[in-house]
Amino acid sequence: MAMVRTPPVCSDFEERVTARLKALVTVLPDGAATFYAGANPNALAKSLFPYFCITPSNPKSAAIRGYVIERQGIDFTIGQATGGGHNPGTDGTFT
Known about the structure:
Layout: E1 3-5, H1 12-26, E2 33-38, E3 51-56, E4 64-69, E5 73-78, E6 82-86
Parallel strand pairs: 1-2
Antiparallel strand pairs: 2-3, 3-4, 4-5, 5-6
């Protein structure tokens, strides 16, 4: 199992998203990646939204990092230049 470090998160949506991201990392081979969720350690100002980062141990692989935003979805970046997002369904579920 890969290393996982998860501080508490605020809302049910943020908790469910964080749990899914954590589950993705824990099924990887040991040492393949680390998972962090909580405050962004590199941010200049404190964010209102939980930050997450999946960092692969292979230096040639891209990290996935971003924010979980209640009622809006996920704002994320893969590597250095690619960004994206996912919004929850109309019923508030994250699939």
